Structure formats: C-alpha cells, structure tokens
Amino acid sequence: MIKEAKISSVVSLFPLPQYVVVLEDLEKTRLVPIWIGVHEGTAIALEMQKERFPRPLTHDLLVNIIRAMGGQVEKVVISDLKDNSFYAILFIRQGDRVFEMDARPSDSLAIAVRVHCPIFIDEKVLQKCPPLSSGPISSEDIEKFKKDLKNMTPEEFFKGLEEAPPNEEPNPESYEDDETSEDDEDK
Predict the structure, then answer these.
(1) Distance CA 43, CA 109 (A)
(2) Is the domain covering 2-159 a CATH 3.10.690.10 domain?
(3) How far apart are CA 22 and CA 92, in angstroms?
C-alpha cells in the first residue's frame, strides 16, 4: 500500500555538501528524511523557488527528453529502504504503456517537482520512520525535526530504524491499485 506525500522542506546541511529532503505523508503522521547530494538538493530547491535558467539543467533535460518521446511522468514512489538507502520508482506513461524505472529518490523528486506529479511513499517505508508526535504533525514538530537534522548524520537516523520484514520486496504492480484519484481524496 502506498500513501501520497509532499515535499515538506529541503534542508541544507552546510558546510557539508549535502541536503536532506523531508517528505511528509498527507495524513501528517510521518516525516521521511532522505539525505541527498548537493546537486540534487539544489535542483529541487531551485525548482520549488521557481528559479529559471536560460539553459536546461540536468533534470530539466530529462523531463524534456521524456516529453519529446511522447512520455509523461505519472508518479514517483519511494518504494523501499534497505541498508540505509532509499529506493524509488519513476512511473512514465507513453501512450497506453507504463514504464517503471528504478531511480534514486533524489533524481525522482527533482523530476517530480518539475512536472508536478504525485509523490507516494510505500507504507513499509513509513513504518520504519518513527512518528514525531502522537497526533498530526504540527509546524512546530517540523521545525524541531529540521533543526535536529542539521546535527544528525544519516547513520544516527538509520541506527534506530527497525528492519523490514524478511523477503518483502517492493511490488510496483501493487502501486497501481493503491492510488486514488484527486476527486476521491481530500487534500
């Protein structure tokens, strides 16, 4: 089962050449921090700020290629968390065919913000991320979490996470049935 999410924030870990992109499920129960490189973090942050450049950046080029080939990015799914690494699947529709592309979450999110497609997180990934509060996440919870991230390494975060149940591999086919239309969902 997958749940829709949004990018809550992009946190620079300056002076380290890293960012943390924080995803929040729309039910406001979990925050998912994904440590990414400076280039991908910058690409996401600049697009979210609606910065425009005279020449296409790498993720803009990828979007242009997908569109030129008659494709459309339908959604991004953060599909797994194994060995301290997040995994993502990029769903690209071309006519009546859907291609499921294994991708890094950082690149997938940089593309998602450009095409404004939905972002989903597999339930098993959400279950591995500890809840921040007993109820819905507040803006204060998010600010405290962002502050804590600046003093936390990925290893420290992952150290407390439980392992996924054995032999559970992401099943992209199951992601087709879990999606609800915008008309069915309160946003």
Answers:
(1) 9
(2) yes
(3) 24
pLDDT in tens, 127-137: 887 666 556 67
Structure tokens at 32: 């998912």
41 close to 18: Cβ distance less than 8 angstroms: yes
Among 144, 33, 12, residue whose Cα is nearest residue 81: 33
DSSP H helical segments within the chain, as ranges?
A: 38-48, 58-68, 105-115, 123-128, 139-149, 154-159, 174-178
Count CB-CB contacts under 10 A for residue 43.
Answer: 25
Cis omega before residue 165 (within 30°)?
no
Look up residue 53 and give its two tokens: 């450049």
88 contacts 101 by C-beta, under 8 angstroms: no
pLDDT in tens, 11-64: 888 888 889 999 998 888 888 899 999 999 999 999 999 998 899 999 999 999
Tokens matching residue 44 = 């996401």
CB 80 within 8 A of CB 122: yes
Using CA atoms, how far residue 117 sits from 7, 17, 106, 130, in Å, is 12, 27, 15, 26
Q: What contacts 24+ positions apart, CB below 8 Å, involve 176-185?
A: 178/1, 178/2, 178/120, 179/2, 179/75, 179/118, 179/120, 185/4
Q: Identify residue 19 by its one-letter amino acid code.
A: Y
